[in-house]
Amino acid sequence: MARLFVPLVLVAVLLFAAAPLVVANAPFEQTMGLIQKIFYFHVPSAMLMFVSAFVCGIASAVFLFRRSAVADRVALAAGELVVLFGAIVLVTGPLWARKAWGVWWEWDARLTSALLLWMIFLAYLLVRRFGGPGSEKLAGAMALFGMANVPFVYVSVNYWRTLHPKTSVVMTLAPGMRAAFWFCVAAFAALYVLLLTLRKRLEDRQAEVEQLYLAAED
Amino acid sequence: MTRLLPLIVLCALLPGALALAQVPASPPSAQGDFVPLSQLPAQTEQLPAAPLLMGAYAFVWIALLGYVWSLWRRMATLERELADLRRRVQKP
User: Fold this and answer.
1) Do the Cβ atoms of B53 and A205 come within 8 Å?
2) Rounded CA Rg of chain B
3) Is A159 left (phi over 0), alpha (psi -120 to 50) or beta?
4) What pLDDT band is residue B5 in, cutting at 50, 70 and 90?
5) Residue A104 DSSP one-character state
6) N or C, which end of chain B is more exposed by having fewer CB within 10 Å?
């Protein structure tokens, strides 16, 4: 992984720096016009929020059932990224909605369930930070519930009446929009892997510090 | 993290506050006269999209750069602590 780190940084920075140019050159949507371009950052962020919730949930399951300290560190790193990408989704979405729907927020199934998902992982981080000894097991169980919430958030637009576009939008994009969209997804995915690696490395260092404190006491 | 707590609580409460702040739309008043289409004023954009779009993109960049900065700062603190502890452990 250490050998891949520098190329990963370069790829992530290049893709992310080029993304605004790609988005600017993407065609305008017929009814929403300029504001629809929020889509190119909003949806990849939502996808990574879901992916990160799965990474956190699966790593938490491995930690709970196999007592793996490495899995626990991955879970914490991924949990923090759920909150980061979730914050991006929950801020860019209302900015788009204000123009497209005329309101900042609507308590429909998609928006409410996405907010709940974000709050579950925010609670996960708070339990990890302030829960005291043994809180990682409680937090791990919370991450499992958070992960179980993801499919409901995803399909909510197809089953409940909502102003939010359905999941089919991504698959039916016009060619110019499709290329720009998948470019942004690749840029965000590279950035996600980079941030997860960095955050996990931070937890590794933290574990080393704790071991050294024990050694110093002995 | 402790210093960020008020911000986190604010973020968690914000959607509820926004919902309370939204006033239900009142029904449109009865129409007094009919206006021919040709006499309508030119359509202008009621709410410009550019500030909202720029706000969204600015938030994305600030959030990501802020997170990278916080990682870098936390890593630097830990590295210092680690070096200090290694010195203490190696001392006879």
Assistant:
1) no
2) 27
3) alpha
4) low
5) S
6) C
Is residue B18, in this structure, part of any structural domain at all? no
Answer yes or no: do B71 and A195 touch at CB < 8 A. Answer: yes
pLDDT tens-digit map of A52-79: 999 999 999 999 999 999 999 999 999 9
What residue spans define the domains of chain A? 36-217
| Contact status, residue A124 vs residue A139, Cβ threshold 8 Å | yes
In chain A, the residue whose alpha carbon lies closest to the alpha carbon of B62 is A88
- To test the contact with chain B by mutation, choose from A15, A35, A196 the residue with the greatest count of B C-beta atoms within 10 A, namely A35
pTM metric for this prediction: 0.83
- B19 contact residues in A (CB cutoff 8 A): 105, 107
| Of A22-31, A132-141, A147-156, B49-58, minimum mean pLDDT range | A22-31
Number of H helices, E strands in chain A: 7, 0
Of B11, B47, B56, the CB nearest to A41: B56
Q: Do A107 and B19 touch (CB under 8 A)?
A: yes
List the single residue in A34, A99, A104 with the smallest CB-CB distance to B18: A104
Q: Residue B7: inside a domain, yes or no?
A: no
Tens of pLDDT, residues A104-158: 998 989 999 999 999 999 999 999 999 888 899 999 999 999 999 999 999 998 8
Strand partners, A29: A33
Domain that holds residue B86: 50-92
Q: Is the dihedral of CA A25, A31, A33, A38 positive or negative?
A: negative
A33 contacts on B by Cβ (under 8 Å): 49
